[in-house]
């Protein structure tokens, strides 16, 4: 089994999308955040969520509230609680897809695909430009390089988890929390769609080349190049989805 601590370290810890709830309905917001972690694939099937004490602290909610959240996720068949020395809350595998193309069309039909893809492009190119415009410093640069290296080293079945973490790391380093929150949400939608598309080696190699070029441009402070590479990367994802839908 894979524990969440196996995720490469990055901004905000191993689960960078988690943050203290902002008031109002804390239980509902905490549920959305943990659900987003699962949808993003940051904790893979069979992986364990952080311990209750840590997760409640990251979300800024009581353990009673967190247990209500985990109960909802259990009722939805997304996680299960296990007792004992190696117990905890574990992410369950999603049911097998009844045919990738058919399921992709169903999921794409439930969203405004054009809007999702355009919004992702705006956020990702904007984040790339912001990162390039500032001096990330040794720690920031190291985090970005580590996230990139993890994608190169990831086995094929685990690639998309590390790919997602790489992009989340870049966006978090932009220094704009609102941008990061919105990117995590749209990325979860994109991941739901990509889950239906086979991961081919030729596509992975192209993606890796773009990731490397993006990091090089950001660390060189070349905002125009960083935005251009990010835009091309997003265009590749769009072409892949539209070809699969066709």
Number of strands: 2
What is the total domain count?
2
Q: Distance N terminus to C terminus?
A: 36 Å
| Sheet with most strands | 2 strands, antiparallel
Instruction: Round the mean pLDDT to the nearest integer and report it.
Output: 86
Keywords: DNA-binding, Transcription, Transcription regulation
Protein name: FadR family transcriptional regulator
Domain HTH gntR-type: 24-94
GO molecular function, one term: DNA-binding transcription factor activity
Quick recap of the structure?
The protein is mainly alpha-helical and 246 residues long.
What order do the helices and strands come in, and which of them pair?
Layout: H1 26-40, H2 52-59, H3 63-75, E1 79-82, E2 88-91, H4 100-109, H5 113-133, H6 137-153, H7 159-172, H8 177-194, H9 201-219, H10 223-245
Antiparallel strand pairs: 1-2
Helix pairs in contact: 1-3, 1-8, 2-3, 5-7, 5-8, 5-9, 5-10, 6-7, 6-9, 7-8, 9-10
